Amino acid sequence: MPQAIRFHQTGSPDVLQWESVELAAPGVGDAQVRHHAVGLNYIDTYHRSGLYPVPLPSGLGLEGAGVVVAVGEGVTNVAPGDRVAYAGGPLGAYAEVRNIPAHRLVTLPEAISFEQGAAMMLQGLTAQYLLRRTYRVQAGDTILIHAAAGGVGLIACQWAKALGATVIGTVGSDEKAALARVHGCDHPIVYTRENFVERVKQITAGEGVPVVYDSIGKDTFMNSLDCLRPLGMMVLFGAASGPVPPFDLGLLAAKGSLYVTRPGIATYIAKREDLVAMAAELFDIVGSGKVKIEINQRYALKDAAQAHRDLEARRTTGSTILLP
């Protein structure tokens, strides 16, 4: 029987269990994928902790890459033997083998390894929609990216730089500042000792930035609003420090008629044609060498609990993968 990570109650990483699971033949519209690598993402900790509730017991993980081993009735977009990758669910990527709706799979180019595919799909597609659709970054823009040395951050910094933007990024240490800098971040700000609002104002000569990309949430949200120029856009796409408390929307008018959005990848990739187009753009920019996928941590899949501990303790940089 194949093995998978499951959890029967929400809580700390200790709730994650390595279990044998029954796996039926793929049903109508499904494909069975044997994973070669699985992606680790911060949203996985939200599902595990209960911040984003899911029916229990549950599998975990939204991203993986591997080979199709079987397909169900009606599947035409993939076939056994195809190299594929996916992101965005349904939950269950932390598994040696799984069934998944075939329309969620994209063919992985030969030039991209399984490890790269697992490391880049969710984070890379997130960077794609943030930079190309939520707020379309233009050459000459100066933008702010929080957690610039994280998985999404390193991809977004490189991609924004390739688009001709000037990139400001917040990081937690000098080591992470150096990492962000070599990945396209022009102005890394070590938030543990620098006031990032003051630094952004200095860098932009008091003007502020047109967009802030914020995956931190509670600890950065209000100060991020003060980094925006009039009519700027606050893009809150995560809550690593906790959810943002309710606030008076009148503040948005007072601070310059600001926009706030809370995007999620599921909406952007809901239509298959959008998923395919976004993945193609991601594969193209990675294939061009303008965006490099940094896999800085690898764990055995059965050790997912330790990977979660390290992720939540901010001991990771770039992308992390789990290996079945």
From TrEMBL:
Keywords: NADP, Oxidoreductase
Domain Enoyl reductase (ER) residues, every copy: 11-322
SMART domains in UniProt: PKS_ER
Molecular-function annotations in GO: quinone reductase (NADPH) activity
Domain of life, source organism: Bacteria
Record carries keyword Transmembrane: no
Record InterPro entries: ADH-like_C, ADH-like_N, ER, GroES-like_sf, NAD(P)-bd_dom_sf, QOR-like, Quin_OxRdtase/zeta-crystal_CS
Gene3D superfamilies: Medium-chain alcohol dehydrogenases, catalytic domain, NAD(P)-binding Rossmann-like Domain
Top EC category: oxidoreductase
CDD domains: QOR2
Keyword Nuclease: no
Range of residues in the leader sequence: none
A Pfam family of this chain: ADH_N
EC number: 1.6.5.5
PANTHER family reported in the protein's UniProt record: QUINONE OXIDOREDUCTASE PIG3-RELATED, QUINONE OXIDOREDUCTASE-RELATED
Name of the featured protein: NADPH:quinone reductase
Species this chain originates from: Aromatoleum diolicum
